[in-house]
Design goal:
Elements lengths: L1 H14 L8 E2 L12 E9 L2 E8 L2 E6 L4 E7 L5 E7 L2 E10 L5 E11 L4 E7 L4 E8 L2 E6 L9 E6 L5 E3 L6 E5 L2 E5 L8 E4 L6 E4 L9 E6 L6 E5 L8 E5 L10 E2 L4 E6 L4 E6 L9 E6 L4 E3 L2 H6 L7 E7 L2 E6 L4 E5 L6 E5 L2
Length: 354
């Protein structure tokens, strides 16, 4: 099953390898278009649109949240697009790697730059091997990480000035991270020497945090609640059990007990200071992705919030979730869908990409 999928994907990747910077499709009237895309990944939002990276065709698509339709597609290069951030009228998209049917990987080293107004690919920046996550740091800076080739290059974390493309490496290599009030919060690879850091966004000086961490499984996600600065750490259950949610205040003090969630909780978004939605990624091919809703004010935690609210599962591998204009938007990669979820009651509307 997996080999067949990657063989088809690799063939599609090779077919797109001659695309140039003029390959974006521009829809002047922002009208719905008839296009079939697969494997949606990460989401950025701007105006009335979501911008979603996709594996096939290798592209970023524009999804109008009012029309509930794709209104544009911008083809990229031949490598998988992963993380995406919107900064000052541009999209910055990580260009990662591809694999053949035998899982032989080839790595890219670029961030693609797409102009939002024209929805055209206007630039690419060489940034390091296998870039993965990209986030806005401030009005003219992004922070991103690279994962390297896992043998001779083990990645790094960098800040890039979007005005002049100047790149500054950080002292800490963060496997995962979030941004809060211009500072970076993240952790190093859980499969080496695990440590959590807060990095000052102005000076780029790092301070170790959460030094009392003692969970038996590894971090799988980290997010900061923008309403109060709480640090949320999600764990992987060692890939054999359900993961947990740990909450700390911004001073690093533990807040309450760990909460057991579902399979591979990967991202938390804040509804307010007391409530979170947590995306449970789920295992590949098992169709057990889920959304949990945590209420720390009432201690009422609904682990299977999505499935209970909709009488159906979320699908196969939930990749990303953002809260934007009062709704949660979720990409489900192998179900080829985008879910629009009401945070109050969990009711969802599904958009099928193909």
């Amino acid at each position: 099953m997996k080999k067949t999928f990657w063989k088809i994907l690799f063939t599609a990747v090779l077919a797109t390898s001659t695309l140039t910077f003029t390959s974006c499709k521009e829809e002047e009237k922002n009208e719905p278009i008839n296009v079939s895309v697969e494997n949606p990944r990460y989401i950025a939002a701007e105006g009335d649109n979501l911008y979603i990276t996709c594996y096939y065709p290798i592209s970023v698509v524009r999804y109008d949240i009012e029309q509930k339709a794709i209104t544009g597609i911008c083809n990229l290069g031949k490598f998988h697009p992963e993380g995406i951030a919107a900064v000052d009228g541009k999209l910055y998209i990580a260009s990662s790697s591809i694999s053949d049917e035998n899982y032989n990987y080839t790595y890219d080293n670029k961030l693609y730059v797409v102009d939002i107004a024209s929805f055209k690919l206007v630039d690419s920046v060489t940034v390091g091997v296998n870039p993965a996550k990209v986030k806005k740091l401030d009005g003219n800076h992004i922070v991103y990480n690279t994962l390297g080739n896992y043998s001779t290059d083990f990645g790094g974390t960098y800040v890039m000035n979007t005005d002049n493309k100047e790149i500054t490496p950080l002292n800490e290599t963060l496997y995962n991270f979030d941004v809060y009030e211009g500072d970076i919060y993240g952790y190093t690879s859980p499969y080496g020497t695990l440590a959590f850091y807060k990095i000052d966004g102005s000076t780029l000086q790092s301070t170790q945090i959460l030094t009392s961490w003692s969970a038996n499984d590894n971090p799988y996600g980290i997010n900061v609640n923008p309403n109060n600065g709480d640090i949320i750490v999600l764990t992987d259950g060692n890939y054999v059990a359900n993961g947990d949610c740990y909450r700390f205040n911004n001073a690093g003090e533990t807040q309450g007990e760990a909460i057991q969630l579902n399979s591979l909780p990967s991202k938390a978004v804040a509804i307010n200071a007391d409530q979170l939605l947590v995306l449970n990624e789920g295992a590949w091919g098992v169709n057990n992705a889920e959304v949990s809703k945590l209420d720390f004010a009432t201690n009422n935690h609904i682990v299977n919030f999505f499935s209970q609210s909709n009488n159906s599962g979320l699908g196969d591998v939930a990749q990303d979730m953002i809260l934007y204009k009062g709704k949660a938007y979720i990409t489900v990669t192998f179900s080829n869908s985008l879910e629009t979820v009401d945070p109050a009651n969990g009711h969802s509307t599904r958009f099928a990409f193909n």
